C-alpha cells in the first residue's frame, strides 16, 4: 500500500474510493470538492471537550438515536467526505453496510475547533457541510467557550446562525439541555 501523500496526484479529483486504502496512521483523511484534506489526531484539550459533549448528549438521546464518532458524511458523487467529531443519526442504520452516511441521514454534525487549524472547522467544513445539505452543524469553540449553531443549509452556506454560551437547549435532533460551563470546564 502506498501512502496517499506519497503517491502521484490522481488524474481526476480525489474521491471517497481513493481513501479506502489510506493507512491507519492516526491522521484523518477527508475530501472537499475533490481536494484531499489531512489532519492529525486531536490533542488532549480537544479530546476532553469532545468527550464531555458527547457524553452529555448520549445521556439525553433516546434509544433510537446514535450519538457517535468516526463515521463520515459522504456526498453522493464521492467528491466530498467529512468525518465530524460527533455525528447524530438514526439507530436503524447500525448494523447496515453503509461505509459513510448520506448527508440526509446526519441529523446533526459537530466539530470542535482545533487550535492548530481553526479555519478547517470555521470555514472549510462550514461551507462543505452546508453544500452537502447537513441540516444542523455545531461549531464548538473552546477558546471562546461558545457553540455556534448553524441551520438551514443552502448552496451559499447556512442561512441561520446562533451563538450559545453558558447553556443551550433544543428539541432537535432530540430534546436536550447542555450546561456549557461543564463542557468547557
Automatic annotation (TrEMBL):
SUPFAM superfamilies: Restriction endonuclease-like (SSF52980). Signal peptide: none annotated. Coiled coil: none annotated. Residues 16-180 form the Putative restriction endonuclease domain. This is Putative restriction endonuclease domain-containing protein.
Amino acid at each position: 500500500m502506498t501512502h496517499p501523500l506519497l503517491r502521484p496526484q490522481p488524474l481526476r479529483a480525489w474521491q471517497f474510493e481513493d481513501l479506502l486504502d489510506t493507512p491507519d496512521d492516526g491522521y484523518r483523511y477527508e475530501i472537499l470538492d475533490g481536494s484531499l484534506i489531512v489532519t492529525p489526531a486531536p490533542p488532549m484539550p480537544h479530546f476532553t471537550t469532545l468527550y464531555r459533549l458527547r457524553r452529555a448528549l448520549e445521556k439525553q438521546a433516546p434509544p433510537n438515536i446514535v450519538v457517535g464518532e468516526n463515521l463520515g458524511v459522504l456526498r453522493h458523487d464521492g467528491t466530498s467526505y467529512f468525518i465530524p467529531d460527533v455525528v447524530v443519526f438514526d439507530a436503524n442504520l447500525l448494523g447496515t453496510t453503509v461505509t459513510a452516511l448520506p448527508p440526509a441521514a446526519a441529523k446533526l454534525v459537530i466539530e470542535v475547533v482545533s487550535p492548530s487549524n481553526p479555519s478547517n472547522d470555521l470555514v472549510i467544513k462550514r461551507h462543505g457541510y452546508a453544500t452537502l445539505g447537513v441540516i444542523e452543524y455545531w461549531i464548538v469553540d473552546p477558546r471562546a467557550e461558545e457553540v455556534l449553531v448553524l441551520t438551514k443549509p443552502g448552496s451559499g452556506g447556512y442561512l441561520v446562525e446562533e451563538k450559545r454560551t453558558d447553556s443551550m437547549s433544543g428539541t432537535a435532533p432530540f430534546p436536550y439541555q447542555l450546561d456549557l460551563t461543564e463542557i468547557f470546564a
